[in-house]
Amino acid sequence: MAEQIRISQQDAYSVSVTLSIATPKFSIDISGADAISYNSLYVKDITQRVANDGGSIGSLTCLESLVDDLNPTPPSTVTGILNISNMDTALAVYSLIRERNTYFGPCMTVYRSSNGETKDIYFLDNGNIDSQSIVNFSLGGDVLVQSWYDQGLEGNHFNQTDNTLMPFIVKSGSYLGYVENQTVNTGDGLISKFRYEALQNFTILSVVEVTGNAVVLGTDNSNQYHLTAQNGSTLDPHTSDFTAMTYSIDKVDLTSPNRTDIYNALFNDFSLVKTSGRMGVRRKLQLGYGSLPSFNNSRYKAVVALLTTPANISDVEDELITKYSL
Fold this sequence. Notes:
By secondary structure, the chain is an alpha+beta fold. The protein contains 6 helices and 17 strands.
């Protein structure tokens, strides 16, 4: 007896799939404009969905072999930055555009401030976030970001459980086109499961804009940050726990920048920032600052955390600059 699973682009995460497979003989029909390329990711997704719905898979080996037979060609309509030179060193990927062709999960879970209802928001066929769905969900009010999902393989999602600290994606029924921190409470912003490991090199690419003094990228410890924009300050843009830091904005290296340099480069203009360095302790990545609300004046379109600096980093930067018209 054969069981058949049919998964389309929009159905992949929104339709409940319940299976009880008695024998290891079944087929998988995956349709839609976007083909599957990274088969291991889909095996993981399918088995997780089945488990979440209380089902079971009789033979994982059989499932893996059948998925391996699928066409591995990615769609031509969407080009993800992580498909360049098989760059799989990304520890976390957050973006308002699909960055991995094989990612079919939601972009984010949003929170309607008027009544506390939530909704998963997916990507359109062209790879952009379904902004109209968020606007419709807003009912003319504000919509906040509860979770911004990691499109990589590690599941290092951004989350915020306190609705008073969640950033905006819609204000008064208008889609912003970016994730904007609130600036009224200490700790405003999203915290990721991604951690800077002690003594581990890292590189982070972010498409970001600031509207005032801001800690663009911080940690779950209120005193730790590695990218600070501050008008009129000559202080170094990172604390002592971050070492060997380098900065590049729109592919232009900054030599020994201070906080004013960062502020002037990012103020009222979205730019691609590359920051590289090493963390002295283990901390979680946070969008914004956990100490002063007045330092959360940041807007984000994408954040990509990488282990070290891959050889093809220039290609990845070009992709982000092109995608976001910087």
